[in-house]
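Q: How would the structure tokens look for this protein?
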Amino acid sequence: MAQLDKDRIFYDESGGGVTFSGGEPLSQPEFLSELLGQCRKREYHTAVDTSGYGSAEAIKSISGMTDLFLYDLKHMDDEMHMKYTGVSNRLILDNLRTISQLGKRIFIRIPLIPGINDDEGNIRATAEIIQNTPGIEQVNILPYHNTAADKYNRLGKENSLPGIPVPSGEYAESIAGRFLAYGIKVKIGG
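A: Here is the predicted structure in token form.
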């Protein structure tokens, strides 16, 4: 909190606050809850940037101290989600419903990965979930980038997505247009 308090003037002047991200902040629910509680006492705006992969208890324990959830949706097809992330999307979608039922503000963040989650079926399924989940204020399309490719090489690790093209600005705009066609507020970038 001492580190966060050093930036109080910036929060006050900009209307900003503290965003907890990671890794996955829900993997450390006690620590996250304690920090959120301290931020709440200081009246800092708080956001939790999450994949939604955490326990329902963790979600419930932090929700009262979280002003905004930045919530990733990667793929609506459970098999595809499992293939690319290693986990089912069921818990993630259940937690999204829980956050919605708790009346929290939500920004959905979609990493746009050509050939993986940009097909019409996935866009339609994602849009339907967004339309039917109260509290979602906007969608942020996050175009895939390959900046980690060099890091994989340096660490001697295999890049699990080699050859994925970086989407052009025009392509990202076309995907945003597909969400706009569903009446969803959308922004490119975070």
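The longest strand covers residues 105-112.

The mean pLDDT is 94.

Upvote if useful.
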